[in-house]
Amino acid sequence: MQAGPLRKRVVFQCRDTAVDSYGQQVTTWTDAFTAWAAIEALSAREVLAAQAVQSEASHRITVRYRGEFTNPVAVAAMRINYNGRLFNISGATNTDERNRTVEIMASEGMNNG
């Protein structure tokens, strides 16, 4: 893949659990790695969740292959941060199983990953 379409710098984040000052567990996100990506919007919809209308947009995010993408379960547990926009990863596929590019299906808007 040529470098031209990969012009957005994204940060992959992993979910961690920490303990706050009251002894309660809280979810935190730590940066795992950064990558250049292409982000393509696919669809958008509005849903009724918790008695409120919320919008959700699905995206295809394309990045170069890395060793971290060998375990799709670990990738699905991550999220992507792009300039404060948070993308919840639903799946990642190794395009043609050639270890060159990975297409990530992600959604934005419903939660924080």
From TrEMBL:
InterPro entries: Phage_SPP1_head-tail_adaptor, SSP1_head-tail_sf
One Pfam family hit: Phage_HCP
NCBIfam families registered for this protein in UniProt: gp16_SPP1
Protein name, per record: Phage head closure protein
